[in-house]
């Protein structure tokens, strides 16, 4: 399971499953920050168990602790905080566009810092994926809210933080550390920040009482996703990893059409095809390097 394409598809699929699960939780009145904290806590503890069973867990050395705190802040805490801030101001459609910009931001940062930068074919694949993701977003959200240009500028920080997080994990990966151990520590490091965010937003634990099965499913899906995510980070590099969002968008379409009774326009399916083409080109660019 160490082939980058399989890991990309697997990680993106699990990420895509997170969206409908989270949507069900929020529909039951669960606070978004609290749900994010539950994901990080449950997945972190599960991965820590896996790492210990495989005898790959590392002690909390200074480098591992620093890696976990910085990575958790860049990739989980700040994007979640910004998302909660901007959705009421610019709508979910434009917020989704910001996540679609993550691979572009990652590529630019990796080129600037010279951390496993993509080649020209890889850049073409990223651009195609972005075009496809934007087509899907526009096709599913015909009434994008455009008021509040200042909040759009704030929202643009979402792909910036995600991009820096992707590059940082490759740049600062502790020597000899295992992907599973780092996945566990990074998620657990994010929990206090997410929990504090939830408290400040006035969280309510009551809705969780009836969602035991959904919580278990969410933790299972997230654990599988992060176990593959950090392996993909290690062998695929930051830019290739960042394209899991493109895969997740396509998976979300499939789930919506198959299980949720959603109907999409032809434009949306064209976008999904462009995303698939972009991923194919990016994977081919990786093969050209080897």
Task: Give keywords.
about 290 residues, about 80% helix, 11 helices
Spatial separation of the terminal alpha carbons? 18 Å
Could you say which overall geometry the principal axes of the C-alpha atoms support?
A: globular
Contiguous runs where pLDDT drops below 50 for at least 5 residues: none
Number of beta-strand segments: 0
SSE-based structural type = mainly alpha
Largest sheet: none
* Helical percentage: over 70%
Oligomer designation? single chain
Indicate the proportion of strand residues: under 5%
Number of domains: 1
Order of helices and strands: HHHHHHHHHHH
Brief sketch in words of this structure:
The protein is mainly α and 290 residues long. The protein has 11 helices and no strands. The model has no long low-confidence stretch (mean pLDDT 84).
Describe it.
The structure is a single chain. The chain is an all-alpha fold and 290 residues long. The protein has one domain (4-289). It is built from 11 helices and no strands. It has helices at 4-27, 32-53, 62-100, 102-113, 120-140, 149-155, 157-171, 179-200, 212-241, 244-259, 266-289. The longest helix is centred in the first third of the chain and has 39 residues, at 62-100. The radius of gyration is 18 Å and the shape is globular.
């Amino acid at each position: 399971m160490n082939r980058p394409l399989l890991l990309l598809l697997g990680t993106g699929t699990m990420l895509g499953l997170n969206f409908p699960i989270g949507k069900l939780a929020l529909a039951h009145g669960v606070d978004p920050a609290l749900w994010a904290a539950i994901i990080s806590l449950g997945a972190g503890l599960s991965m820590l168990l896996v790492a210990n069973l495989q005898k790959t867990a590392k002690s909390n050395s200074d480098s591992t602790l620093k890696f976990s705190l910085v990575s958790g802040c860049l990739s989980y805490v700040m994007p979640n905080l910004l998302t909660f801030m901007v959705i009421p101001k610019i709508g979910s459609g434009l917020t989704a566009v910001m996540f679609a910009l993550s691979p572009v931001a990652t590529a630019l940062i990796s080129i600037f810092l010279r951390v496993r930068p993509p080649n020209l074919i890889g850049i073409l694949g990223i651009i195609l994926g972005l075009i496809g993701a934007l087509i899907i977003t526009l096709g599913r959200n015909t009434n994008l809210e455009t008021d509040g240009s200042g909040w759009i500028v704030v929202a643009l920080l979402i792909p910036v933080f995600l991009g820096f997080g992707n590059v940082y994990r490759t740049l600062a990966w502790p020597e000899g550390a295992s992907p599973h151990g780092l996945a566990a520590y990074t998620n657990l490091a994010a929990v206090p920040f997410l929990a504090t965010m939830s408290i400040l937003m006035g969280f309510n634990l009551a809705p969780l009482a009836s969602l035991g099965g959904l919580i278990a499913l969410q933790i299972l899906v997230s654990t599988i996703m992060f176990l593959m995510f950090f392996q993909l980070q290690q062998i695929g590099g930051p830019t290739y990893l960042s394209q899991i969002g493109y895969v997740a968008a396509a998976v979300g379409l499939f789930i919506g059409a198959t299980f949720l009774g959603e109907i999409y326009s032809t434009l949306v399916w064209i976008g999904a095809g462009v995303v698939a083409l972009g991923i194919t080109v990016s994977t081919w660019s990786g093969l050209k390097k080897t």
